[in-house]
Amino acid sequence: MSSYFLGLFILSLILSYFLIVENNNLYTFNESNQDNLFQFYSPSTTVTFENNTIQSYLPFQSNNLNGLIIVGLADYNYIKSLIENEPGQSSVDLIYILDKNKNKKYAILCMWHSEYLETSAGPYNELLLATFVKSKVMNKGNNEFYHLNCDIVNGQLNSFCPVTALLIDKSLKIKTFKTIVNNKVTQYVGREYLGCDKYLKEINYENHKLSHQIEVSIKEKDKTLYQMICTVDASVTSLLIDLFKIIKALGIKNSFYLLFKYIFNEPLIYIPIIGTRGITRNKDFHQIDPFCLGIIKLKYFLFNDVFNSPEKIKMVMNEEYYKLFNFKPISVLEIFNSKMVYLSATNNKLD
């Protein structure tokens, strides 16, 4: 136990400065190319869509990303049906956590609310839905392979366990579902290059920085399909309490490894992303799952455990697609001024 307190003390000294400081300087995209992330994954090709009227360069780069990632529990059977009813036969299967007292499975759902201020496709807002999956195993009865050791016991859950598992378990991937954007270029790039099932709708993202309140709404023909309001607790007390939970979930070794990468400005998160079969003109991805790698370099961030604090998040889901997730938030991560690169396996082979 003493090792946890040692890690907590060291991390708190650094995070108390880095996590709460606001950065109001917005980079231009030319300046951002000086970052080693964009130098290493520099644009190597240009692609055009829709009779050459839409153009972007690849790999897809995103500078100055703000967002709110809400991780929560969702209806296992509904999400499993979404995967099974996609075109073709997906090569992944759903991860679950277990409420041991109720013997009930839950899927993990991530709702990524993002404000991309500078990207290869220009600025845009996005709502991306994703769940945790693993590649199918030969032994179909091996359910333990898909069981994430983040169980609910006596109504208690370490809310950061699923997120930290994604950071350290190399077999975990995220599977994307219906994604909403308000930029036609990124809709095409997302569908054709990343195999992400993107739809063009009106999406508004507002970040009240002083209060850390984030509001996101999606509308279609003046009808509100989705609305979310979240206030992130930025107090030092809340951060330190939640930081201890993160260290406990990660372990000391992994905590210091990630801290080292953060201090030395290295990419902190590598996310294998599985898209949707059959939605691109790349016929290879009609037979296999579209795959890409998201590489994120975090700048400033805040985190909250909301498992027992449902009042921090208000959601209105007027579309049946969203309602059926039966979503229960457990943790949130607010990010500021971060950078991201998407690497795809498509090789731009569009017919």
Question: Characteristics of this structure?
Answer:
alpha+beta, seven-stranded mixed barrel, 351 residues, four-stranded antiparallel β-sheet, 24% helix
Describe this structure in words.
- With 351 residues, the protein is an alpha+beta fold.
- A seven-stranded mixed β-barrel has the order 3-6-7-8-13-14-17.
- It is globular.
- The protein contains nine helices and 17 strands.
- Strand 1 and strand 2 form a beta hairpin.
Give the structure's gist in a few sentences.
The chain is an alpha+beta fold. The chain has 9 helices and 17 strands.
Strand content bin = 35-45%
Sequence of strands across the biggest β-sheet: 3-6-7-8-13-14-17
**Overall average residue pLDDT:** 84
Cα(first) to Cα(last) distance is 58 Å
Q: What value does the Rg take, in angstroms?
A: 20 Å
Basic shape: globular
Largest sheet: 7 strands, mixed, barrel
Can you count the beta strands?
A: 17
Task: Determine the oligomeric state from the structure.
Answer: single chain
Helix coverage percent: 10-25%
SSE run: HHHEEEHEEEEHEHEEEEHHEEEEHE
The stretches of 5 or more residues where confidence is low (pLDDT under 50) are 13-28
Helix-strand category: alpha+beta
Count of alpha and pi helical runs: 9
Question: Mind sketching the topology for me?
Answer:
Layout: H1 2-18, H2 29-32, H3 36-40, E1 45-49, E2 54-58, E3 60-75, H4 76-84, E4 92-94, E5 97-99, E6 104-119, E7 124-135, H5 161-168, E8 173-181, H6 184-192, E9 198-200, E10 202-208, E11 213-220, E12 223-231, H7 236-250, H8 252-263, E13 269-274, E14 291-297, E15 300-305, E16 313-317, H9 320-323, E17 328-344
